[in-house]
Amino acid sequence: MKWWGEPLGRSAGAHLSRVGRLRRALVLLGAIACTAAALLYWRQQTDDRATRPLHSLLGGIEPQWSWVCRNDRCERLLAAETNVLQSLATCNMLCSSTQLWPQPTGPVSLATAAVPVRAKGFNLQILASPSREVTDHLSDAFALMRDDLKSLERSAAGDIRRSDIGAPRDVVVRVAVNGSADPRLRLNTDESYKLTMKPAGNALAVDITARSFCGARHGFETLSQLVWLDPYAGSLLIIEAASIDDAPKFNFRGLLLDTARNYFPVNDIIRTIDAMAACKLNTFHWHVSDSQSFPLRLASAPQLAQHGAYGPGYVYTTNDVKAIVRRARLRGVRILIEIDAPAHVGRAWAWGPAAGVGHLAHCVELEPWSAYCGEPPCGQLNPRNPHVYDILEKIYKEIIDLTGVDDIFHLGGDEVSERCWAQHFNDTDPMELWLDFTRRAMLALEKANGGKAPELTLLWSSRLTRTPYLERLDKRRYGVQVWGASRWPESRAVLDAGFRTIVSHVDAWYLDCGFGSWRDSSDGHCGPYRSWQQIYEHRPWIEEMPSTGAKSWKVEGGAVCQWTEQLSPGGLDDRLWPRTAALAERLWSDRAEGAAADMYLRLDTQRSRLLVKGVRAAPLWPKWCTHNPHACL
Q: What secondary structure does DSSP assign to 135-149, as a single string?
């Protein structure tokens, strides 16, 4: 037994050779078996994707829920109990509802299939434009839309892995504007648009036609609403084909923000304008001054901010205004700056005697305030000081130059204290002084506007817009923003008299109502909170018409009003949104039905869009209702 230590013989070597070949054969068979198993597993996964087309793992953990469209509604199921894995966002977009806000007024046709896209894959082709200015605005507005899509894309959770949903499609957006060469929103601007989208090879072709830049911009907004982020796929998806014909019912669709009671930074205003544009509102009514403060630093009258602002950090410079105007214009929004007069002025106007121009205002911070104004501090302009009108002319001209808005202007004109003027001018009826002030302020505005009165000059509804003074106002020159309750006779009298009217009824569209009084323990001046449903269901233009018929009512549109005695920047968004979105659809679509079930779903989707834009909109309901919307209705 010595062979272990001896050289291997020929027969032993042959034996080991056979063993080696056998082992190699076994390894090869094992490799073939593993490959077959892998192919089988791959096919199984591929088949699984056919029934779970948007499946991806969230950090390696299966999603908990899936939504399935049944009977035109999305139902929530445990993901483990269904072979269809679909996110709520995708189910909502592909089920029965259009998910557009505001609802278009013309025919809408949307595909029930979606394809993946990327924000960088959206490209603009301008096929027709009436001016270089319109072309530039289209390019810049499209860039803003693409930035919005990038924000949506970035909102995807970082640990989501893309599933095999196919290669992203490019989207070619072809725009033709055949109409106004002026990109500004005007009172007569045609804001209609048509949008069609269909596959074109490996891309999608979108055609938007409009009569104005603003109409084309609304088309961009609608296009962006056909795109959503699918959280299970970690990708943007878009409706594969669409056809939409759309135009607004009313040409004035506004939001008033008061920045005098409390100051709001420029970024808050720009974010508000972005949210307005997302809902196709078109007028930011900037109530920039009041008796409490005058935060607008104007080159034509720097003393007003110097004496009237809360401090150096609480002013809006002309550069601030220009930035706001520029952003708003690209969003299809006009900036309507209101310097309230002759009342609602304060210490900002108290510098007259020191400057050698006499008393510009009377009753400034007079006590007891309750005898001279609705809330402290009091003050109103001196209607007999000619320097007042010189200053107003300079202010009006600078505002028109800064905003580019010269066809519509707001003179203010609310809550004049007759007692104040009676104490200083006991030889004249205070109402006659008020009428004379309005006439002279209008002349100052005409001079500021190059010798031409704006097409529509607005006044707040007041005692001046009641009989017998209403009949002494020229309805061809003045319009009225009606803030009184819808059932007040004086509110209806303005309509019956045929004045062009902006509706802002306190009992429906005042957003500061329902928070009590800041002065005492009462319910406040305007009663209960206005829900989005109440805002939506308010349609004063269909009330019982006067005997002369509906044609005498000239409703230009409406605006919600956010007064800010009890509001600071941190609470602005959830006070405005989504309630203001309800007004937006009322004024764009004016659907006959009230807050129907479809509205809740679409408004909840619109709120989610606002959240992506950084707007901290209040929830409509518990999140459970978002997951099970029809169960909450």
A: HHHHHHHHHHHHHHH
Q: Residues spanned by CATH 3.30.379.10 within the chain?
A: 105-246
Between CA 381 and CA 384 the distance in angstroms is 9
- 242-246, strands of its sheet edge to edge: 108-110, 242-246, 193-200, 203-210, 169-177, 114-128, 235-239, 227-230
On the 0-12 / 13-18 / 19+ scale of CB atoms within 10 A, 343 is buried
- E strands in 217-341: 227-230, 235-239, 242-246, 252-258, 283-287, 334-341
d(CA 409, CA 453): 9
- Fold for the domain defined by 105-246: Chitobiase; domain 2 (3.30.379)
- What is the topology classification, in CATH, of domain 252-595? TIM Barrel (3.20.20)
Taking the C-alpha atoms of residue 146 and residue 118, their distance in angstroms, rounded to an integer, is 10
Output the six-digit token pair for 161.
């892995």
Catalytic residue among 191, 207, 221, 290: 290
* Token duo for residue 52: 């779970």
Side chain identity, residue 307: H
Token pair 């601007």: residue: 189
- How many residues are given for the chain? 633
pLDDT tens digits for 432-484? 999 999 999 999 999 999 999 999 999 999 999 999 999 999 999 999 999 99
Dist CA 237 CA 94 (whole Å): 11
Q: How far is CA 283 from CA 273, 286, 293, 508, 557, in A?
A: 9, 9, 23, 19, 10
Segments of 86-241 assigned E as strands: 108-110, 114-128, 169-177, 193-200, 203-210, 227-230, 235-239
Instruction: Report pLDDT digits (tens) over 225-263.
Output: 999 999 998 999 999 999 999 999 999 999 999 999 999
Tokens read off for 343: 């009342």
Does 344 qualify as catalytic in the annotation? yes
Measured in Å, how far apart are the chain's first and last C-alpha atoms? 94
Q: How far is CA 74 from the centre of its chain?
A: 27
For CATH 3.20.20.80, list the domain ranges present in the chain: 252-595
195-200 CB contacts, 8 Å cutoff, 24+ apart:
195/219, 195/222, 195/223, 195/242, 195/243, 195/244, 195/246, 196/242, 196/243, 196/244, 197/223, 197/226, 197/239, 197/240, 197/241, 197/242, 197/243, 198/241, 199/240, 199/241, 200/172
Nearest to 563 by CA among 259, 291, 325: 259
How far apart are alpha carbons 118 and 139 in whole angstroms?
Answer: 19
Token pair of 94, please? Answer: 């592909």
The predicted model gives 94-104 an average pLDDT of 93
Query: Which residue among 55, 287, 344, 410 is the active-site one?
Result: 344
Which of 136, 245, 268, 415 is labelled catalytic? 415
